[in-house]
Structure formats: C-alpha cells, structure tokens
C-alpha cells in the first residue's frame, strides 16, 4: 500500500491551501482532450486472464466428454474413471499454462509467440495424467483411441480458441478498450526516459495520453519525448473527470516530499492508480519491492479502492440482490406510490441530479415527498423539522427512507450501488456552505459508486446537516467504508440499515 497516509494528504491540503478541489485552468487543456471521451475499459487484464482460464477449463472438459460420446457412446460407458481423467487434464492444463506465462497479455496478443508454451503445457498435463494412470495400474482401463483423440482434439481446440482470442484482443486494443490510459506527472530527463521505456514495452498495455507539470512553461517543455504537456496538476483533475484515465505516474524525485504531497493532496480524490517511477529515485530496492509495467519498475503510492474481481463481485452483488429486493418490495413501492399520488397533486417520482462515481452527474429517483410547486431540485435549502414544503405522506416516507426505494432502479442500471457513500445533491450545504468547501478531500467519496445506504447512515449520520461537524463525520465514515470495503462489509451494512432507521432522530 501507500507510503503516504490519508492524514498526510489532508495535512498537506491544509498546509498548501484547498488543493484537492482547486479550479483547473481549462484553457491549458487541448479542446479535443476534453471533447472526446475515451472508450470505457472493457475488462482489466486480471479479469480477462481469469475469464480465459475458466473458458479453457470448460473447453477442455467439453472436448474430453465430447470425444468419448462421439467415439465410444454405446460401446464404453462414460464411467467415473473417464470423468476423473478428463477433469485431471482440465485442471492441470490451466495451472501449467499459468506457470509458462501463457495467461499474460503479451501471450494473448500473439498466437505465434505463445504456441510453443501452449503445446508444451498441454502435453505436460497429458504426460502427468498418463504417468498417474501407469503407476496406479489403471492405464488398461482407458481407450487409447480416446486418449489420442482427446490429446489432439484438445490441442486443436486450445489453438483455435487462442487464435480467436488474439483477434478479439487486437480489435479491442484498436478501439482503446484494453489499454491503461496513463498520465505522466513531471518533466525533464527522468520523464523522457520513462516514456521511452514504456513505449518500448508494447506488451505492457500502457497508452500515454500526455504530460502534466506543476512548473511553468519557462521551466518545463511543452513536449516531452513526443507527448504534449496538457497542463498543470490542477488541470489533471479536470482531465480525469472528463475522460477515462487509469494510471498516473510521478517522475518527481522522492526526496521532493513536500512537492509530492502537495500534488497528492490534489490527486488522491480520483479513483485512479498512482505510481512513482523507480527511475525518479536513486534508491535501489529489491526487485520484489516494485510493481512492474512490463519490465518498467514503479513504486505503488495509491491504488483505486476497487479493481479487477472486486468490481465484478460488487456489480454482481448489486444487480442480483437489487433485483431481488425490487421484486420483494414491489407491493410496498406500489402502496407508497398510491399514497403519494392520492394525497397531493403531481408526479409520483422526483428526479434529482446528483454526483456519482468520479463526480459524474447522474439522475436519481425518489418518491416525491414535497409539494410540486415547492420542490428543490438542487437541495439548496435543507429540509428541517416540520418543513412546510413536505407533504404529510412525505414526512413519513422521508423518516423511514421509503422515499429512497425507487433508487433500486438506479442500482439495476448500474448508476448506484446498494451500499456506498450517499450521493449528495448539487447544492447541498452544511451551515450555508457547500459540502466540498467544508471538508478537505470531500470528493474522495466519489472514488466508488454512491449507494442507497452506507456506513455513515447506519452510524446515525443521515438527515439534516445544519453544522459542519455533521458533514465532517459523514465524510469520515464514508472514507472508512471506501478504505475497508468488502462484500461482507456491504452485507453487514444492509442488515444494520433497517435498525438504524428507528434510531435516527435528525431525518425529516
């Protein structure tokens, strides 16, 4: 994990001013850089490799069973011994392919470069299974025709599958789906050396978008190793909000701690991996102390809170549980909708713009709890006790959070999670001051998808925020959730939510 603690960054933000949410200077950014959103990341290399392993395991198993059914059906039954041999090869082959590096992105991009490893691992898997058969004295119980056909058919199937995979990878790379879009922070010879090293490592999947430097144009070049300087670190925040960015690499000497902390105080709120180039430091560590982009060593500073299989697990959990809750709570939602419709004129649902993941604007759904002519779409004025804008039904559904149930549709659409920091309205205030002006690093809450419920809510920090302390506590709980996320933590919060509704006294 990082050598820099979140407290260090908040202290740095305090020392150097409100850096994290400083206004960028858009004029320094090329118009096309902001006008052309990057294609979304299709799958991370880790998830893609895992999917290929699962697919090849299933393919080998199907070939083994299929060959038996074609050649031996009605002659030799598909007994447990044949299933055991098939399963043994299907399990061994992916392990051996992993050991030979056949699940790296470089191997996925070229069948010619990985064909020898593919054939070698497949042959060794068969040899191991055959050796077990001989030593167990059961080799005579298997059809030699089946073994030979399984070997040849499996090898051919793997080769065809890998060929299709290389074509798929090539097409997706041309569309920019599989590259890690990377920004370089800092200039000078160190940045030039790093960029050339990354450009020479085409298999590492890094696509450099440009260079950002906090120094003025008099001290830093406008072009570094063929890549343009797109602005300052403040501009990098705006850039990352408007287009996809996966990785930031610092090329600043680690001895410049204050300068690095000042920049991190601006950048840590982004859901992006941050690395420090090993070439920027004269300190040489053991190889295992580094992570690598291809063969280029870097030091890990910050990781995005959710990546790879965590994102897959979170999305599956949200969609499956969210759909189940939607079906189970449909009668309750219908009852609330009828109550809203019959007790005050106007639409049943209220739509409101809020900040979502990475500060993207999303439209969330709620049951309408205010009179139509007094609705406050931007939440510029907090709802208080006995607020005349709130309907009689509205008071009840706000107190019990039944007005939030339509946000299950946002969960199914992928805009919200079941659990996460609550999405705040655009003009929400604490003590008449916008939230992001009250709390340093406020936008770090948006490093994950917002949720219908969250750790802050089950700990009593929901409802009215009439003081700065209340929003400060809410943000602290949100950051604790982000730093300690797990599926089990989500389940714990969901079970605690109904109980917390009865304990909250400041939700009106």
Q: Could you explain how this protein is built, in words?
A:
With 508 residues, the protein is of the alpha/beta class. It folds into three domains: 6-41 and 178-302, Rossmann fold, CATH 3.40.50.20; 45-174, no CATH class; 309-503, no CATH class. The protein is 49% helix and 12% strand. It contains 18 helices and 14 strands. It has an eight-stranded mixed sheet with strand order 3-4-2-1-5-6-8-7. Helix 1 (6-16) packs across helix 10, helix 4 crosses helix 6 and helix 6 (111-135) runs antiparallel to helix 7 (144-174). It is flat, with a radius of gyration of 28 Å. 35% of the residues are buried.
Task: Write a concise keyword list for the protein shown above.
508 residues, alpha/beta, Rossmann fold, 3 domains, eight-stranded mixed beta sheet, two-stranded antiparallel ribbon, 18 helices, 14 strands, 49% helix
User: Stretches where pLDDT falls below 50 for ≥5 residues?
Assistant: 16-35
Count every helix, treating DSSP H or I runs of 4 or more residues as helices.
Answer: 18
Largest sheet: 8 strands, mixed
* Rg of Cα set: 28 Å
Strand order of the largest sheet: 3-4-2-1-5-6-8-7
Structural class: alpha/beta
Query: What's the number of extended β-strand segments?
Result: 14
| Domain tally | 3
Strand content bin = 5-15%
General shape: flat
Straight-line distance between termini: 41 Å
> What level of helicity do the residues show?
40-55%
Average pLDDT number: 83
């Amino acid at each position: 994990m990082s050598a820099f603690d979140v407290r260090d960054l908040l202290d740095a933000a305090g020392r150097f001013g409100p850096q994290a949410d400083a206004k960028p200077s858009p004029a320094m950014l090329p118009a096309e850089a902001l006008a052309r959103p990057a294609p979304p990341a299709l799958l991370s290399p880790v998830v893609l490799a895992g999917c290929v392993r699962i697919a090849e395991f299933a393919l080998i198993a199907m070939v083994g069973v299929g060959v038996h059914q074609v050649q031996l059906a009605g002659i030799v039954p598909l007994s447990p011994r044949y299933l055991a041999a098939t399963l043994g090869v299907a399990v061994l082959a992916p392990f051996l392919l992993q050991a030979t590096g056949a699940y790296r992105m470089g191997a996925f991009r070229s069948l010619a470069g990985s064909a020898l490893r593919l054939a070698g691992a497949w042959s060794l898997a068969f040899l191991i299974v055959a050796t077990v058969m001989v030593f167990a004295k059961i080799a005579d119980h298997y059809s030699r025709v089946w073994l030979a056909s399984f070997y040849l058919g499996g090898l051919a199937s793997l080769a065809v599958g890998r060929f299709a995979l290389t074509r798929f990878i090539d097409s997706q790379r041309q569309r920019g789906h599989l590259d890690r879009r990377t920004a370089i922070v800092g200039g000078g010879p160190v940045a030039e050396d790093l960029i050339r090293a990354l450009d020479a490592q085409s298999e590492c999947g890094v696509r450099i978008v440009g260079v950002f430097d906090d120094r003025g144009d008099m001290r830093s070049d406008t072009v570094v190793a063929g890549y343009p300087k797109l602005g300052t670190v403040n501009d990098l925040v705006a850039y990352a909000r408007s287009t996809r960015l996966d990785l930031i690499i610092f090329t600043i000497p680690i001895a410049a701690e204050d300068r690095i902390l000042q920049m991190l105080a601006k950048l840590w709120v982004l859901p992006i991996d941050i690395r420090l180039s090993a070439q920027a430091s004269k300190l040489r560590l053991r190889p295992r102390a580094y992570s690598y982009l291809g063969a280029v060593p870097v030091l890990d500073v910050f990781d995005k809170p959710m990546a790879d299989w965590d994102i897959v697990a979170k999305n599956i959990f949200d969609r499956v549980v969210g759909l189940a809750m939607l079906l189970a709570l449909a009668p309750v939602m219908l009852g609330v909708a009828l109550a809203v419709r019959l007790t005050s004129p106007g639409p049943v649902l209220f739509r409101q713009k809020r900040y979502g993941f990475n500060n993207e604007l999303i439209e969330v759904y709620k049951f309408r709890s205010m009179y139509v002519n007094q609705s406050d779409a931007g939440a510029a004025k907090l709802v208080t006790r006995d607020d005349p804008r709130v309907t009689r039904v509205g008071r009840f559904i706000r107190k019990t959070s039944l007005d939030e149930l339509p946000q299950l549709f946002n969960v199914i659409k992928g805009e919200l999670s079941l659990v996460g920091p609550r999405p705040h309205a655009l003009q929400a205030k604490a003590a008449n001051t916008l939230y992001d002006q009250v709390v340093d690093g406020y936008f770090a809450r948006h490093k994950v998808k917002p949720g219908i419920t969250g750790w802050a809510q089950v700990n009593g920090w929901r409802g009215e925020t009439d003081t700065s302390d209340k929003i400060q506590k809410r943000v602290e709980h949100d950051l604790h959730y982000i730093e300690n996320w797990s599926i089990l933590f989500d389940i714990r919060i969901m079970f605690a939510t109904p109980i917390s509704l009865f304990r909250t006294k400041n939700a009106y």
